[in-house]
Amino acid sequence: MSAVILDGRASAARIKRKLAHHIVALQKQHKIVPGLAVIRAGDHQASQVYVASKMQQCQEVGIQSFQATFKEKTSHEEILEQIHRFNANPQVHGILVQMPLPRHLDSEKIIHAIDPLKDVDGLHPENLGALMAGVPRIVPCTPQGCLSLLRQYRKNLKGLLAVIIGRSILVGKPLTLLLLQENCTIVIAHSKTRHLPELCRQADILVAAAGHPCLVKGSWVKPGAIVLDVGINRMANKDGTSDLLGDVDFEEVKEIAGAITPVPGGVGPMTVAALLQNTVKLMTHQLGLI
Length: 290
Ligand code: NAD
Hints:
With 290 residues, this protein is an alpha/beta fold. It has two domains: 32-118, 3-Layer(aba) Sandwich (Rossmann fold); 141-268, NAD(P)-binding Rossmann-like Domain (Rossmann fold, 3-Layer(aba) Sandwich). It has ten helices and eleven strands. The strands form three sheets. It has a six-stranded parallel sheet. A three-stranded parallel sheet has the order 3-2-4, with helices on both faces. Strand 2, helix 2 (45-61) and strand 3 form a beta-alpha-beta unit. Residues 142, 165-168, 170-172, 189-191, 193, 196, 209-212, 215, 230-233, 267-268, 271 line the site of nicotinamide-adenine-dinucleotide (NAD). Nicotinamide-adenine-dinucleotide (NAD) is lined by residues 142, 165-168, 170-172, 189-191, 193, 196, 209-212, 215, 230-233, 267-268, 271.
């Protein structure tokens, strides 16, 4: 039997419609417009597409967007100066640094320069610490999107075994903390993990965030498991076009899993929806509206 497809595009559209109404109400009541600033550096083509899409979606829901773009050879100083300007700008409520940055740049140093109250992806140590302590102020966007999709399919996640492939600060680590709060039991796997297929076969929830196309095969999945595919891998075709592939072999796994996210159209749109929600949340915090 084929798995339920967890349609991230449709869910994200619902979240954005609700958010757009909320933003109109905030404008009427308080005469304020939420603002998101995105910093991008380098020639990474996919990043240019992602940032353009984020700007477009800001406009759709009524968020004012600001963009700062730097050349591949930019310096830390240039980016840090821009972050300080955005930190000081009262029209900017959320600041996002689009990853990946050019290799010579220290992404930690750059993220740490963002005012924690404007850290829209929740990656500043202060915000990650709050999440760790179980009192999150702002939750990283991709894990938040993953949790929304999971909850739509199954309200109560208590006691389920989740195997998360990938231990990055962007996805795997914060998602571990969120699922712990849901009373799941977590195994976090990474590139040095042994017996990965056997581990995955035990999972009630399997999350693939390795950046490795079609890593998870049908034989790795327990029948009925919920499979979230976070991976985005752009594969070039001979004719110059390209396709997006996830970390899960979708055709194989959809025949075994109970539910699965597609790529594209699964976790990606939910990440952007969470980014827009977080911008509004930060604004309401900054202005003391909640
Ligand atoms: P990362 O490179 O920082 O981390 C990858 C992790 O996967 C590491 O912990 C590594 O140990 C592990 N890993 C790599 N190969 C592995 C293997 N063969 N077996 C087991 N573990 C392995 O990457 P990231 O930033 O966490 O992103 C992961 C993937 O998710 C990428 O494809 C990225 O494009 C995608 N991503 C998607 C979204 C979205 O919105 N859908 C958001 C962020 C990242």
